[in-house]
Amino acid sequence: MRFRAEPYIEFAKKAFAREATYRIEVLTEVISLVLRVYLLRSLWTALYAQNVAPLGLPLHSMITYATVALLMSLILEVDGTRAIREKIREGTIATDLMKPISLPMYFFSDGVGQTLVHALLVVPSLLFALFLVHIDLPASPQAAVAFAFSFLLGYLVNFFVNFLMNAIAFWTLET
Questions:
Q1: Is the pLDDT of residue 175 over 60?
Q2: Domain range for residue 98?
Q3: How far is C-alpha 53 from the geometric centre of its chain's CA atoms?
Q4: Fewer CB within 10 Å, N or C, the chain?
Q5: Within its chain, how far is the Cα of 86 from the centroid?
């Protein structure tokens, strides 16, 4: 049997549309992210004003690290695999298992759709951080490619660990 990607691309599109449905929620999320980036900068600036830089780490490096970590965590914050637990609890997982699709690939494509919405929400905050908070850019194009590759691997590990933890509900949920 040959793998067909078309259904999973459609699942990702539907998840994207579902996540981006409420424009006010999207707008408030963007404003919230920009505010969080500004607050991170203010917090670290205040902390560094009172103390010597720990281990010789300059302020702008700490702000860059904290901002990138915040924005990455928001992109990785996808709760699509929680639907597995809910479907098991409700019993609807049985009908999903009978469908002619790969259930892990379905949840993965759903998560990709959600992640794309979160990534688009992060872009204004990243631009704000680049221009107004002055975070550092990667040192070289190779470093940027290595970062993107490691982020992709981190996304895959995050998905599979979440999938595994939620799939354990087959044996542990309400037994």
A1: no
A2: 6-172
A3: 30
A4: N
A5: 21
CB 174 within 8 Å of CB 90: no
**29 located within any domain:** yes
| Residue 156 located in a structural domain | yes
The string of pLDDT tens digits covering residues 124-172 is 877 777 777 777 788 899 999 999 999 999 989 988 888 888 888 777 7
Dist. CA 172–CA 175, nearest whole Å: 6
Residues in the chain: 175
Structural domains of the chain, count: 1
DSSP 78-109: --TTHHHHHHHHHTTHHHHHHSSS-HHHHHHH
pLDDT at 97: 84
What is the rounded CA–CA span in Å between residue 109 and residue 31? 27
Angle between helices 103-128 and 59-76 (to 10 degrees): 150
Instruction: Determine if the pTM surpasses 0.85.
Output: no
